[in-house]
Amino acid sequence: MADGYRIIGAEMSPYSVKVRSYFRYKGIPHQWVLRNAASQPEFEKFAKMPIIPLVVTPDGTGIQDSTPIIDRIEKLHPEASIHPGEPVTQFISALIEEFGDEWGNKWMFHYRWGRDVDQISSAGRIARMRAPGASEQEHDAFTAQVRARMVDRVWFVGSNATTAPQIETGFREMLGLLDAHLATRPYLFGGRPAYGDFGLWGQFYEMWTDPTVGGLIGGGAPHVLDWVHRMLWPRNEGAFETWSALAPTLMPILTKQVGRQFWTWTLANEKALADGKDEFSVTLGDKVWIQKPQKYHARSLGMLRAKYAGIADKRDLDLILAAAGCLAGLRA
Ligand SMILES: N[C@@H](CCC(=O)N[C@@H](CS)C(=O)NCC(=O)O)C(=O)O
Question: Which class is 5-76 in CATH?
């Protein structure tokens, strides 16, 4: 086996760049391997699911799914920890990681495949990565194929005629809240990146590369823009902050975004799956959201519940989660 880890991924995959950012922060030797025809034999050998990133360990084991990848590597490389020290901030960081992976992906996917300009840009970049040596004609045909396939999939994350305006309004609100939070600190929880930064950032990084939403970030959220750049090569620049220092600008994110939208959606999605429904609707804020349930979400929700169960002293945490609308259903 080659020295170090190999990360088979793509620049356009939020979960791949999330894992790469983590490896860079930890200074763990690794190679970034593009997912294309050249890496196909290695991918087939080690992958159990057709998703990226795939991490191949130095002893020849394949690991997938960005959250368990980071959890596993963090056990082997615990310093500097990506988990803030207080029970409250530690769990809220895990909650934001999940929020980024699952809810942030709705913004990302929706904006990437919603408008012509973004579809053309994104499909073209994916086609070039997968087939770098293609002729112009082959490239155009492949781009058209990728575009058609991905546009046909936006429903999967819940983007449709009813939800599209809600996704965009929600994203713009989040951008403003995040910009205010990052105005006085380099990372979400203070002077160094936390678990939550990696999950949320993967989606923001992708959005920054896309024309429409990249313009919103670059044109209107200078602190988010700096964080998008900073997280490409994150560094330990200082200590984590306490909850009381973070709360003035982090609590609005928890309440308006994580609680009112993501957590309400999560519980409705879980119920729809349990009831065997083909479609569900749920009121988020003052708007009705409609979509087909997302199955894979159950797995990451289970991991988040295990993290909550692992927090020994939940007194302060429960008060904050209840105030933000994220406590119901965590104990299940
Ligand atoms: N929960 C997984 C999600 C991974 C995922 O959805 N990866 C996408 C790319 S970002 C993928 O490989 N999709 C299959 C495909 O595009 O064919 C994780 O966190 O790693």
Answer: alpha beta
